[in-house]
Amino acid sequence: GQNIDQPTEMTATEGAIVQINCTYQTSGFNGLFWYQQHAGEAPTFLSYNVLDGLEEKGRFSSFLSRSKGYSYLLLKELQMKDSASYLCAVGGGGADGLTFGKGTHLIIQP
Amino acid sequence: EPEVTQTPSHQVTQMGQEVILRCVPISNHLYFYWYRQILGQKVEFLVSFYNNEISEKSEIFDDQFSVERPDGSNFTLKIRSTKLEDSAMYFCASSRLARDTQYFGPGTRLTVL
Asked: Which of A20, A38, A94, B57 counts the highest number of beta carbons within 10 A?
């Protein structure tokens, strides 16, 4: 089975940096995904890690440590529009479907 | 930029009725998925579909659910006899290859009364 943990809610200030952590326990692993979801909308793909290390994409970076079952999403130069839920999802073993965490609701304050 | 589309955006039905939710995946994608998200809860995998057959399904995807690719573009989810607890947002997703990035459609909000 799969178990994914991430904080329920975080608050940060516009212009600052925030790190959202995700830990997972899985029976198999073939990649970790981060999605952004605004209320009432679909998840939007942000990043994908399958090997250990940091992947950088503009203001967003994602890190993976497979031995620790740990990932984080780093958001820099926060903007008000970054207020959303951030979903950590794992693809496991031979399975096609993603297992999602409950999401971290990020609140950006001026 | 190509995207996944879904219709209708909102469906209201009576308990026990059948509903069909429709999706048009990204045109060069080979793998198709359905997920659901009950209000306030996490996104849950239902089923994946490849080469005109189910590739994987979760324990949520019981006998009341079925999927079909009736033509070269549409991908449908049928719920045979809806229950109150089927009320949720249903997302279709597609990926070019297996275990590749999945791109989600805007969702269909299903309300069962």
From this structure: A20
